[in-house]
Amino acid sequence: MNKEHPASDELYKGIPHKHFDGDVTKSSRLSPDKVMDIVDLWMKNKLCELKQKYIRESMETLFQGSKKYPKCFEELGDDAPAVLYALGNVKLLQQGRKIAVIGSRDVSEEGYENAYQYAKLQAMQGCVIVSGLALGCDTAAHKGALDAGGLTIAIVGSGLDCCHPIENKKLMNEIIKKGGLVLTEYELGLPATPYRLTTRCRLQAALADEVYVAECRVKSGTMRTIKYAQQLGKSVRIIHLIEDSQEDYYDRSKWIPLEEARRMVIESITREYDRIHACDNENKDD
Question: Which of these, 138, 150, 209, lies nearest to 180 by C-alpha position?
């Protein structure tokens, strides 16, 4: 360990000793792979620590029964979340007509355009656009609202420090910066899972006054939102419903090759680390 580096003590504290002890007692050297494993672990831990610290200082926690907790969620009965975590303009939860604009992730050009234009039109008329920050129709809806100079709420299926998908991290930041809101029922550190992404459907349906489906398949998460909305007596408009087929289900032509996926992950982590570390340094300077 280079003790001459001004940050060496701080860096060393972030590395669990168990990753050194076994190797160091046997030899004074570490294999290149072991070194990279340790660096990778430290990077992940440090990134998570800095990100959670930054977000924890900015987010609001809304407990069920408090003044800021949306009354519409009470309609869910026992399924109402006991606590919500929010980044951005929490007042949006209590104001304006809200329209959920949702649909498929793997969307056609027509479906994307439908979501974008409808969200843009409704945002121009003063409505708050609700969606889930996913790729496809959700992305189109959020962008349509923002391009109209309007407001949008993203309800996500992860902790606020675990943006999913990572490709929409910039969009998430833009939503917050332009007066919107990102909302979740999950604590910091919890990544998106199929279950968590599914449970957010009930929150989208409960928060919205109307649900607009630009495009979706018969078997999809979007259909869950539609089901919840109908149970709650909300207005639902479905523009394009696609029948599923076995060929579509097993088509892996759009899957990412393993090496390409690994490269994307490494690049994403590196960019995210640099951004969060820069934000942390700015906060210290302030």
Answer: 150
Instruction: Find out whether 244 and 132 touch, Cβ atoms under 8 Å.
Output: no
Element (H, E) at 191: none
Same domain, 104 and 206: yes
* One domain, residues 213 and 169: yes
Residue appearing with tokens 């009965």: 77
Based on the fold, state whether residues 66 and 37 are members of the same structural domain.
no
How many CB atoms lie under 10 A from the CB of residue 19? 16
The whole-angstrom separation of Cα 130 and Cα 73 is 14
Q: Mention every residue, 6+ apart, whose C-beta is less than 8 A from residue 92.
A: 128, 151, 153, 179, 180, 181
My answer on whether 114 and 74 are in the same domain is yes
Asked if residue 162 lies in contact with residue 52, where contact means CB atoms within 8 angstroms, the answer is no
Question: What region, left, alpha or beta, does residue 64 occupy, with left being phi > 0 and alpha being psi -120 to 50 degrees?
Answer: beta
Structural domain span for residue 69: 59-250
pTM: 0.70
The tens place of each residue's pLDDT in the chain, 286 residues long, gives 444 444 444 444 444 444 444 444 444 555 666 666 666 665 656 556 665 666 667 789 999 999 999 999 999 999 999 999 999 999 999 988 999 999 999 899 999 999 999 999 999 999 999 999 999 999 999 999 999 999 999 999 999 988 999 999 999 999 999 999 999 999 988 999 999 999 999 999 999 999 999 998 887 788 899 999 999 999 998 888 776 554 444 445 545 566 666 666 666 666 666 666 665 565 555 5
